[in-house]
Amino acid sequence: AQKITQTQPGMFVQEKEAVTLDCTYDTSDQSYGLFWYKQPSSGEMIFLIYQGSYDEQNATEGRYSLNFQKARKSANLVISASQLGDSAMYFCAMREDRNSGNTPLVFGKGTRLSVIA
Amino acid sequence: GAVVSQHPSWVICKSGTSVKIECRSLDFQATTMFWYRQFPKQSLMLMATSNEGSKATYEQGVEKDKFLINHASLTLSTLTVTSAHPEDSSFYICSARTSPSSYEQYFGPGTRLTVT
């Protein structure tokens, strides 16, 4: 079964507008972490934001915020005031906190965001 | 933030040859490193978990005899693609955590392998 689901293959947003990228996850673990990464055309994976399953507050990092709805198992990324440089692939990922910290990240299929001037 | 490097950044090789990709943690020790493969327009798929001083753990469907992983030190893991074929052409990315108790995980810049 797919653990991370990103249902939007592609999204368009006008420059300076906000955009929400959807992510739902599936786990039976109580302790886990949720991540968002940005991958520009160069291929590098850029860490954006992290949310722990026990964190009560939604994570925020500058223009990025994570809308964490635990009961719905969703971890949507909100990018405010979009910039042309935000155009990239965005991946949602999860790590279940077991196995002494050796558990890998599992990624969704990604959403390609295009910011329009 | 922590830095993970990979070498080479891109490589072209002929079918049947072997290619070694290095992954180094530059400013931290990584007892565990992860190797991912990414085909064009697809997501990152975990290939194996590399543990320093022990055998790597491979994901289902990944041939351990074809993708040799050696984690010889706390800062270096290598992935060797043996007898490469065109279908092995892909983007290979390594990743490491700064410590098991930290959530932070960093990625190398990736290696683009093209097998002709």
Keywords:
heterodimer, A: 117 residues, mainly beta, 6-stranded mixed sheet, 4-stranded antiparallel sheet, 12 strands, B: 116 residues, 7-stranded mixed sheet, 53% strand, globular
Task: Give a written overview of the molecule.
The complex is a heterodimer of chains A (117) and B (116). Chain A has 117 residues and is mainly beta. Chain A has strands at residues 4-5, 10-14, 19-21, 24-25, 32-39, 46-52, 60-61, 64-69, 74-79, 88-96, 106-107, 111-116. Chain B has 116 residues and is mainly beta. Chain B is 0% helix and 53% strand. In chain B, the strands form two sheets. In chain B, strands 2, 4, 5, 6, 9, 10 and 11 form a seven-stranded mixed beta sheet that branches. Chain B has a four-stranded antiparallel beta sheet with strand order 1-3-8-7, with no helix packed on it. The chains are: A mainly beta (117), B mainly beta (116). The A-B interface holds A 33, 35, 37, 42-45, 47, 50, 52, 91, 95, 100-102, 104-110 and B 1, 32, 34, 38, 42-46, 49, 51, 91, 93, 95, 97, 99-101, 103-107, 109-110, 112.
